[in-house]
């Protein structure tokens, strides 16, 4: 239960709405109980007066009380639902935003351990499950407790024995039944939370990889895995439904036994100053109505296992420490940029072998270098370290003679334009996908940069910059997505350009066009290009050849060819393949 304390603290922000909703819930319960109690007493009193032959019976006052209780119940129920749900939605909105803010610093290291569907499930479904905490647990329990006290005190003026009997039974059930049904429903609630996450993860994977599953004939097997998880999920839900039915049966049985006990105790008479028959009916109908206050409590606590499991999963996400932290303030950005890498080593978390070993590299402002090597040699990892997606294990990276760790995040991001291997295209318009890099860019600027990277064809429609990109840029080819990423980098206009395979997936003519554009646009910028192709490398100020996490050769194109080392081998191999 302690895991719920941080989430309970969030309700302090909306204490007025929560308190008002609880007061309205209590008023609604009392009005509902009063309606049935007063109606039963009124009908019993009228019948007894008729049997006794009395011709003077004040029916106007109780009739007005019945109408008043009905109005209060209806208005109170509406007001309680409106206020309580409003407060709950405000808390959940704050919690969801707060959780997302906690997740952002985890990228990419902390997020990499979560699958996409699992992360989404924690942010959306698990947070949504926490609405049970107030609506179905806190409010019903406190309301039921207040109602029991009020009923016991009020009925005590009529008959202390019957009042204490009814109040004692209800208080005992309020303490025992939630405890029993919480432990009975806890394992099913936990399993429902886990299976729901598994199912959504599988569903997300199936939708994203539908083409691959179809091509390799694995769609049936994958669908069977989803069916098995769904079957287990439904079984747990069925077990919870059975517990719900059992709790309702227990409440019906308890209500019947309580009414029977009250009738038996009242058989000898319940008072000296009122008609015994009418008061017997009053206590009986009051007991029938009062158990409404307990009806939702048992059902709520059997779902507490699910609430606690969701709270645990959300809490794990929110309390996870980021791999990289930034200071609040740091050195200011400048137009020129010098970069120095000193003896850095890096190993990915939970991986046994290092990716980078004793890497040292210096770049002066405006210098262009290429990192060349086969896949897995550490080229992309080095770019990630420069952007502080990760921190080095040993060594140091300096920008303008300042350790990179001393820069605040906003300043560091403003100094770098990055084109990663995988370009993410948001499900939004073409304009919004470009404004990520420069929010104040005009439409003319956006159109110019699109034409520069060879995406002018995207403007050949009536919607132009308002054309919809679709989820993940499904309307764009791989090469078009990469050129969109280059357009973003050019718009960002930072002094350091980090490009990871910028021409991958492009034809030869488009590749030459992009390389020429980059040379022209980055004349006064520091440029680092990761590649495994040799096209355009003769224009680089320096080429660094990497292998197994080390820089084994570096120099200009002609110098490296003259050495006839690893770069020479790459060049000979590519020349041979081009001739073929």
Automatic annotation (TrEMBL):
Localization: Cell inner membrane
Upper taxonomic lineage: Bacteria, Pseudomonadati, Pseudomonadota, Gammaproteobacteria, Enterobacterales
UniProt-listed CDD domains: ABC_6TM_CydC
Pfam families: ABC_membrane, ABC_tran
GO biological-process terms attached to the record: amino acid transport; cell redox homeostasis; glutathione transmembrane transport
NCBIfam families, per the entry: CydC, PRK11160.1
Keywords: Amino-acid transport, ATP-binding, Cell inner membrane, Cell membrane, Membrane, Nucleotide-binding, Translocase, Transmembrane, Transmembrane helix, Transport
Entry GO CC: plasma membrane
Catalytic activity: L-cysteine(in) + ATP + H2O = L-cysteine(out) + ADP + phosphate + H(+); glutathione(in) + ATP + H2O = glutathione(out) + ADP + phosphate + H(+)
Source organism per UniProt: Xenorhabdus bovienii str. feltiae Moldova
One example GO MF annotation: ATP binding
Topology with respect to the bilayer: Multi-pass membrane protein
Residues covered by the ABC transmembrane type-1 domain: 20-306
Domain ABC transporter intervals: 339-573
Top-rank taxon: Bacteria
Name used for this protein in its record: Glutathione/L-cysteine transport system ATP-binding/permease protein CydC
Family: Belongs to the ABC transporter superfamily. Cysteine exporter (TC 3.A.1.129.1) family.
Transmembrane segments: 15-35, 41-61, 133-156, 162-182, 249-267, 279-301
